[in-house]
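Note to self: user wants both folds in one dump. Writing first protein now.
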Amino acid sequence: MSLEDPDETQVGRPSAGRATDARHRSRRGLVVAAVVLVLFGSSGSVWWIASQARTPEQRAANAAAPPPSQITGKVSDQQLVERMELTGKVETASRTTITGGRPQGADRAVVTALPAAAGKSLKAGAVVAEVSGRPVLLLPGRFPAYRDLKAGDKGPDVQQLQRALQPLYGTAVNGTYGPATVEAVRKLYVAAGYEAPAGQGPSTTGGGGSTSGTARTGGAAAGGGTAPRGGAETDGGTGAAPGGDGGNGTKGSSGSGGTGGASAPPARGVDAPPAAGPAKPGEVLPAAEVAYVGTLPATVVQVTAAVGDAADKPLLVLGSGGRQVRAALSADQRTRLRDLPADAVIRFGTGPYEGREGTLGSLNSPSDGKNGDQQGKSGGQDGAATAGTAGAGAEGPGAGNGSGNGSGSEGGRHEALFVPTGAEAKEGSTQQIAVELRRSPKGSLTVPVSAVWTDLGGSSTVTVTEGGKERNIPVEVLFTHEGLSAVHALDENLAAGQTVVLVRRGNPADSGSGGGSGDGSGGASGGTDG
């Protein structure tokens, strides 16, 4: 008789069977996976062995050189032009910085008015600034005022003053500060709305020195009225103050303001100095009250001072003498422009001068200082002239007349100044410039640069292919630019439209005139810059 529980025996046997079945299925899965891996490995080995199997003929074909091949191009008769593209800014050709000075009798030089705003055009006789109540008058001239002028003085500065006054008042140019010059100076001040300085009779030295007794009270208009102060335009040459008839002048000494009549015409002629007598307005022209600029009218480029500032510093910058375009250069570009042919074409692109031609004015580099290289036929004065203590500007030799002196470049940069033709453009405008550096001559041909084959001796050839035959033609390379070479054929058999070999691999099928085999790179070819 068994002691086991019948129920427990019936329950335990099915569980043991299920565990045994699971183990059998796991072993079968491992066996199947192993068989698959073996099959894949065998297939790959068979494929690799089959891929390596080659007949002797196949191996010989793979080892043979590829058939000869060529890359070709065409010969052209178009002119090859090398250009330099630059970007510049439009500016006035000559710039003059006006610096103030202390008027005679004033304790300090203080800016009391700046009637000329930026962008304003100024004519001869305009007031560019007022310092300690006295005007700085604008006149055309080639050099700054370097002394106070007074009646009886002689010299080149007197002639410069007379030339400036002649268009306004018909002043004779004789080099002597005589009665006619005195009267013209008086009219100049009256037209500007200021009292003309008065001296103490004619100079006895004929040379010029300091002047005493300069009147400083201003504002008495001709005819007893009060003239406007700080006017920026002249009256067109009449000498009358705005709103007055110009009949009377005001004279005084050290601030006195008595009113007197106009000076009478001299009895001894315009060349003679005035006779001794009472001081007259206009007998003195202080250097601090006149600014000379090379070409008028002038445009106010920048106002650098403000009312109340000390006047012994730059007050404003004037531009005159037409327009130019200033462009920055690299050192290499400057060298190329320095050697620019006389017949080179300079054409303006996008900008206010688009489509117009121009000339190269001057070249500047950091080592030039203030002596830029003058180029072309333009005159290109690059003015950055600084006025002296009198506030007078300086004109470089020949501004506007074709022989400007140039100037040093700003900030140590290489620069070029181009002079455009046509009307003036707005200052500061951006302008594109295209400079033609070289142009292939008529009769020359153009080929791709890789068509030129140069041997170790320096001789150049191009290989022409026609009907499966090749022939070498000697050429002279003029210059190379942007993948093309301008060449002059030494053999008349080279012509536009012919096919030339650029690159070839393998031996040519038939070399008609000694053309050697290439190595796929053009031999010692191309790139020769004549």
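First done. Writing the second protein, which came from a different request thread.
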Amino acid sequence: MPFSHRLPHSPSVPLRIASLLTVAALALTGCTATGAPTPGEGNDAAKTSPAPVPEPAEWRKCGRGLDCATVKVPLEYDDPGGEQIALAVTRHRATDPGRRIGSLFINPGGPGVPATETVESIDAAAGEGPYSPDLLARFDVVGMDPRGVGESEAVRCLTDEQRAEQAAEDRDPTVPGGKPYEQLLADARTFTEGCRKHQSPEFLASLSTDNVARDLDQVRAALREDTITFYGASYGTVVGPMYATLFPDRVRQMVIDAPVDTHLWQHEPLKLLDDVARSNEETLDAWFESCRTEGAEACAFGDGDPSAALDALITELEASPLEVPPVEGITPGGRLDGAVALEAVRAAAGNRELWPRLTEALLAAENGDGRGLLVVATFVTVAPFGGPFATLQEPHTGVRCADWPDLGELSAHRAAARKITERGERLGSRAAYSALNCALWPAENKDRHTEALTAAGAPPILVVGGRLDNVSPHHWAEAMTERLEGAVLLTREGVGHTSYRSSGKCVDSAVDAALIHGKLPADGTVCDAPPATTRPPETTAR
């Protein structure tokens, strides 16, 4: 899950991706010291020996309002004095130090999205970005790249040449997984053998979310904070509840946005991926409906029947792909066939802010201009399936294979792919076999955390769920609210993955009030989202 975010992104998801949405538009338009984990805290901490209290973080300035540091943590917490991992940490200093509350730890999702890059994207002077001016005034915003991600010893499984080959490979949108099963299996063998070649099995097995939570607590100790405030999005909603379950007394306040159903994540990943496939389809259907409702004057694609027009365009592009020349500073160019175009549609349909660009890009492709769709497919990757140009695939896969139960029974993958395919959905091809790498994963995590993540003993958590979320379906938010002790559910109407800083004042005010003041809205509160339109910018009514 991830997830992708998170992966199209509005300001609440990695800003690295949010900035690329702008690129797509351009293409279309031309302190007291505290201890480390203590045995007996939480339902899992007793399985480990106490890690030594880390040295205080040694900060160095690394940008406007930014400090960077490295914190070393144990590879294995049952051997705290053994091999260490170096974690990259970046903080954005509170803009009003006199009113500073503490540190706001963030995880933007993925898994595999570097939190340090999200912190680096903060533009306090402009008042824009992933966090509100009020949060930036009151907190140091702290991003830790989880082990195996970003600058924290990122997982590597493919060579640059293999990545280039993967980006250029020919996929068939009518075939589950995009290629014949035996070829998918061969790809999975190449991928997992590369993972084994570049990293030790011990490192790969250590990438689990329970270790990420322990790492987070080590960083807290290195910052000499007694407690943390936490905002997590998408896969970050697994990290947050894991931390609150293992270290409930060290949570000040917590918000999780676009939650993953942690029971499915821990125990039924193929069911989890099937749920995401359905959500992808639901957001595409919402775009179709909006296009039909607004009418051909606003949404000219398909002249009132966008679904039939999309099917025809995908078939045409698969038969006669468009060659897209490079555009300096925007796209290296490439080949737009039906599979790549469908990947772009999947990504853009799940982000209401991209709906006008999707309409424009589809109209352009009908006229032989594939730039818009290729840019979206290249830069906007939707977790948890990845895409032909995905850059987060290796760390993403490493984390989820460490977290998930044994998926070595190949017949289960074939049955799951058959189930998705039989529904006859347009986007099912990418979902099918998307966990096949975990079937051949070269490192067994023998002590993965399997107990329920309830956050018992932590302050009540605010759960923010979108009514139509292409990665995190709303029933996951409902399940998480039930599972987390004392949690409160806030629902955002409309389409989009994550809600904070992309859905208006209602959500933003509720999240800020929870994180700053510990004041939660009434359970079941519903926030309307800004109106969505499929109308391309140049035809938007004045």
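Dump finished. Worth passing along: Residues 269-294 form the longest helix (26 residues).
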